């Protein structure tokens, strides 16, 4: 029988450890916390997004997301502009400063992932773990399963 508790324990502990080491490296080298970095990556990937889109991407509340975006905006890394498709919301996009800090941070992020994961797991294992986690994530995106 598969030990789901061990899988859970290893998954959570590894996630916490990996988050902390990447967060520390980003803070030390770029003065950027991982939470902000993840939002900047989302904005760079999509070009812009509403606060609601960011919240949905990361599974966090709109209110909490709005507060984080306020802080990122105050730092000069993103800006809100009018949403041409919905006057009730605004679009958040990277500023030139945001692009610059993201470029620097991406190098740190990729280096840390290579060091912490790429030197331990081979490509086939990385692909298998990625596929398994993506399957779990996708399977539980239905509204009834978000509880």
Automatic annotation (TrEMBL):
InterPro entries membership: HTH_MarR-typ, MarR/SlyA-like, WH-like_DNA-bd_sf, WH_DNA-bd_sf
PROSITE patterns: HTH_MARR_2
Keyword Cytoplasm: no
Superkingdom of source: Bacteria
HTH marR-type domain residues: 4-138
SMART domains according to UniProt: HTH_MARR
UniProt-recorded Gene Ontology molecular function terms: DNA binding; DNA-binding transcription factor activity
Residue stretches in coiled coil: none
Pfam family, one: MarR_2
GO BP terms: response to stress
UniProt keyword annotation of Disulfide bond present: no
Alphabetized UniProt keyword annotations: DNA-binding
PANTHER family: TRANSCRIPTIONAL REGULATOR, MARR FAMILY (PTHR33164), TRANSCRIPTIONAL REGULATORY PROTEIN-RELATED (PTHR33164:SF94)
Protein name as annotated: DNA-binding MarR family transcriptional regulator
Organism: Hoyosella altamirensis
């Amino acid at each position: 029988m598969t030990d789901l508790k061990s899988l859970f324990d290893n998954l959570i502990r590894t996630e916490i450890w990996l988050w902390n080491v990447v967060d520390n490296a980003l803070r030390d080298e770029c003065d950027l916390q991982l939470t902000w970095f993840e939002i900047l990556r989302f904005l760079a990937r999509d070009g812009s997004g509403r606060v609601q889109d960011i919240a949905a991407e990361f599974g966090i509340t709109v209110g909490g997301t709005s507060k984080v975006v306020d802080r990122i905006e105050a730092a000069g890394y993103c800006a809100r502009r009018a949403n041409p498709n919905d006057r009730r919301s605004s679009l958040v996009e990277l500023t030139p400063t945001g692009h610059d800090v993201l470029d620097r941070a991406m190098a740190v992020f990729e280096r840390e992932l290579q060091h912490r994961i790429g030197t331990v797991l081979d490509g086939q294992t990385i692909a298998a773990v990625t596929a398994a986690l993506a399957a779990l994530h996708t399977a539980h995106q239905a509204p009834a399963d978000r509880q």
